[in-house]
Each structure stands twice: as structure tokens, then as C-alpha cells.
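WARN retry 2 of 3 for item q-0093 after timeout on previous attempt; input resubmitted unchanged.
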Amino acid sequence: MLASLLHLIVVLSASGAAAQSAGVANLDTASIAKPRTGDWPSYGLDYREQRFSALDAINVDTVARLGLAWAFDTDYLGGMEATPVVVDGVMYVTGTWSVVYALDAKTGALKWKYDPQVPKAWGKMACCDVVNRGVAVYAGKVFVGSLDARLIALDAATGAKLWDVQTADTQHHPYTITGAPRAAKGKVFIGNGGAEFGVRGFVSAYDAGTGALVWRFYTVPGNPANGFENDAMEMAAKTWTGEWWKYGGGGTAWDSIVYDPELDRLYVGVGNGSPWNRRIRSPQGGDNLFLSSIVALNPDTGQYLWHYQETPAETWDYTATQQIVLADMTIDGASRKVLWHAPKNGFFFVVDRTSGKLLSATPYTKVTWATGYDLATGRPQFTSEAQWVGRDDVVTVYPSSGGGHNWQPMSFSPTTGLVYFTSLGAANQFKEIPYEGRRGEFNLGTELVAKIPIDDPQLVQAVTRRVARAELIAWDPTQRKVAWRMPLPGAVNGGTLATAGNLVFLGVHDRVLLALRADTGTVTWRFPTQDVPQSAPSSYLVDGEQYVAVGVGGGGGNGLMFGLDRRSLPARSRILAFKLDGGAQLPVVPQANGFGDAPPPTVRDAAIVTRGEELYRSHCFRCHSIGGAGTGRVADLRRLPRAFYDNFDAIVVDGTMAPTGMPGFADSIAPNDAAALKAYLLIQAEEDRALREQPQWWVALKQTYYDAVATVIAWLL
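OK item q-0093 returned
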């Protein structure tokens, strides 16, 4: 009791000190709802999250003069997914491992840095890289969610920690946070990730001043024997069967949380089922609420208001966590308050945000799991060929689990009436496998990736780039169709920014930041960024000059698993800021390091090597890519110095390198399995050496041939 009282006194004292730093990011709900021109005070600019900057000094006529104003190197090389937030001339942005940086928005000079000291071994629990999508700035504070599921409040002026709360039970469950918090009405809202590892999702509200928990809303029901937290959970439980709670259930709210100041509601995008295979988690069927749903809550109490489920009985990893955009539309002659949503499942949704009624659902990419939606019931019309559960064969389904559209934020221009977002036209192959359910492993009930019978990474790269069918889509939500589209060169692309200068900015796989005409899609400017500009840009004003800023650093799920781009990289991921007539230059990228000296294989038994490949796909693929090839930011396991292979068990099983981010797998890899995994990787290393010894003229010739083969494969699919 005394300790709690002392803690409260410390928190209140710190809060008072922050309040005295008047004028430093001292935002309230009203100033985020209608932000001051020139600031970018929240993740999506304001609560509507349309990401449209009214600044127009940088426009179609002047954009050719756009140049680099400054560059800031973060502490790590890795995936950058945060949108830079700018208030009062200060930029607040996060990098990998949840580190927060406060920068002078005019010069890029560091004002302060806060490192939450996330244990590097916890990266094992992150499904899709140790990324972070940004901060919430509110009431003189900066709020960040850490990878190990803490919510932290910092003094906006100094970076001093004001409070730090554990939002989830990480002692017993592998929860993570990668999403940006949202703040409104004196509260901070945050969700979590971890569905692939078997957790139960929820969203929480904390007091912005003290860090006290105000309310919590679970997104899937728990064990009925323990009682239900509220009527909504009792209702949801009727749509589940079996003993779903033993598998976690999933439904993590890992990204989109939007406050609606007009209706005073909070909208939460809910994620996929855990495991993906619905026959395991709910064997007698059922819709499994609130998976793959948008749920409306009372922001003061967390009380359930309504929901709309986009993918009932979700079983393809079709999360509804992608960005929710608030808008007003005229439909059938009447003005409607709506939300727009382009989730993973391939349909663009228009939903009445007063009632949750579906108004339209139109495919924006190739979709094979459903033919459309019944507007009377709001339900999809499923296809039989996409139902992989309960079958013995491999089933191909569009879109892939990477999503027709994923976390990359989209933007809307009221000038053109178009919504801009990146899309993938790839497929997933599903095949049922036994559920093992070990902590720190993907527990999906399906193979994560079908075995790829390609030994040459050069061919894998060519196929991946074309089969991904990446593109930028300009979507007309009124006409419910694509206004224009532009093909993109690979699977790793960024979010978008629309501006009053008739421009759309986005970063693309080929390590370039682009500006396009918002009305036609014509490319008007490009800047080589040395790494993928993967975050969504923001725009702001300082001393009368307009800037565009973006985080540069490829990674995330697609970047780690399928990026396969191992060219030389900068030493660190960066924040880049541009302005008219900017003249700064990026430093020259250092040459790639030499190769290691992996020993030759000593085990060639086909059964052992096959077992090693199975272990690699279940434990290692999501970080180290196909065949151990890495991405340049994560180690190429085929090219490590001999010492790593000599100490293989100590590293892979015992975790001697856990402090650097390479966790141990003693809880799931037995000694014999470790030997099989090592045998597989040494075979991969041997094949890699043979490929590297080929003459360059032969490599170039193969590239031309592989590109042609990949084009044919993409056409056939």
C-alpha cells in the first residue's frame, strides 16, 4: 500500500513537471481534431487519419526543385515503419526496438533520445520484425508502446520517463506492441500483437496523466468457466465452439485504433484467429467474433457499441487491423458518416460509422476466397475452392496472408476524391499440418510457406518480384473502382501521403522515394534513398518552409521473409527530410562485407536434411528469409564465419547471442534437431558457394532468362 502511494506521488509530481513545460507539444483533443496548419500532431495527421496535408508550396510545378534538407541516422539497421510526428518544430519518431527520437524538424539535430531497453531476445516473439509505427503526442507527453508490451509516457521537452506500465502478461504469454498509440479525452489507447503465437487480443485505455488502467476490452471471449467480462463477450462466445481459449483465440488489435470526435466513438481494427486454422480453434464452425472485425467502443468506458465482421470464420490471416479512415460521403442523395477500410482480404469497404452497416464492399485486387458481399446481411459469399481447412492437398488463395493491402497507411485527397494505397496481388498456399503450440513459434495449423523447390536465390528474387504484383492504387470510393494504378517493382513498399500540391508521396522497393501527380499517377520526382523508404511520409512547416519527411529502412514481415535484396546498405536506418532547394547529400554506402568461410557439409543424409529444412521453415524463415539467405540487415546464414558453425548449438539452442537479438530455441529445438538444422544450412552454404563462383557473364545471362521465366509464371497465376 505504501509503495503504491509513493509511486502515485512520483507519477503526479512528474506529471506536474511536464505540465510546467508549457508550449511543448501541449496538445489536447481539440487541437488534434483540428490541427494547426504546419504541424503533423498525430499518426494519421488528425483523428480522421486521411493523411492529407493542406500545404502546397511543394506542388507539381515546384517538386522538381525538391532536395534533401537533412538526414538523421538511428541506432539500428532495420525496418522503419513510423510516421514522423511534428509539433512546434520538433519531430518525434521511433525506430527499431521501440527507441524514440526527438529531432529539430528544421535541421535534424537530436534533441533527446529514449531507449526503453527492450530485451533483444524478445524479438523472437515479434511475428514481423522489431518495428514500431510511431508515437502519440498529447498533453505535454510523448507516448510509445514497446516491443515487450509496455506503454511509456515521456516528457515531450526532455524525454524523461514519466511512467511505464506493463500492458500485458509477458511472463506467461508472448505479447508485443508495434503499433502507434492514440490519445484523446485524457486517455491513451493501445492494443497488442502476438496472435501467431497463441494469445488473446484486447485493447486498453490508460489515464494519460498517471498511467492508470481505465478500461480494457477483449476482442475474443475467454474460458466460459471463468465468466465473461461483459455482455459482448458472452455474445461473441456463442460464435465459437470447442475449447478455443486453450489456443488463445487471437484477435489482436495490433495497429488501427481511431477516435471519432464527431460521434465520440473509438473504432478498433481486430486481427486474425489463433491459430489460423479455424478447425483447430473452433472445430464445429462459427463466425468467431470479433476476429477480422471493426468494433466500435465508448471511449470513456470501453463499452461495446457495434461491430462489423469483414471475414467471418477467418482462416487466411485476413486481419482487419489495417488503417481506418473517417470520411463523409453522399450516398443515394443523403450525407453519410462513413469509414473506409482496405484490409488484407482484398475488398475496399465503406461502412456507416453510426451503425456499423455495410454500405459497399468492392474488390481492389485479385480475390478467390469470396465472390462478393450480400449487402442485406453484410456477409461475404464464400467460394469452395478457397476452403483449405479439412483438405489434404495444397490450396492456393488470393490475396496472400501478406494482404492485398497491409499496415502501410493510405491517404485521401479531397481535391481528387481518390484514396491512395499500395497493394500486393500475390497468393498464399495453405496446407494443414498438426498443431504443436510451443511458445515463441508460429502456431498456425498450416505451413507458413509452401516448400519452394528453387535452389538459386537469383531465380527466387526474380519470381518474388513479379508474382507479388505490387502496385499503387488510386481508388475512387464514390465510383467504387480504380481510377488509376501504377505497377511497383517489388513486395516491400511504403505508405502514402497526399498533399494540396496535387502530389502523392511514397517509398518503393527499389530504394526510391517518389512523388506522383495525384490526379493522373504520373511520376514527377524521384530520390534514391539507399534503402527502402517504408514508412508513410508526413509533411510539415517550419519557418515558412514546407518539408516532407520519411523513415528509411526496409524490413517488416515481407521485407524479412521475401525481400531477398542483399545489396550494400547504409550502416543505420534513417529519417530523411526534404524541402525545396535542399542541397544535403547522403553519405556513400560502404561496400558489402566479405563472405564467411562455412565448412563443407559433413551430413548429407536426405532425411536429416529434410528435417532440417522443416525446422528452418518453422523457426528461422520469418527472419532469415528463404534458404537462410538473409536480407542484408539480418544475417545470411550461408555466409557466416566458421566460428558460428563451430558454436552452432550454443548460439541456436542455448542463446549465447540473445543480447544481440539472436534468441535461443532450447524450448523447441532438441539436440538432434539442431544437428539437422545445421546440416541443412551447410548444404545451403555449399550451393551458395557454387553459385558465387559462376562468371558474371553467366549470372547476367541467367538473370535475363529468369526474368522471362518469372514473367510467364506470374501470367499463369
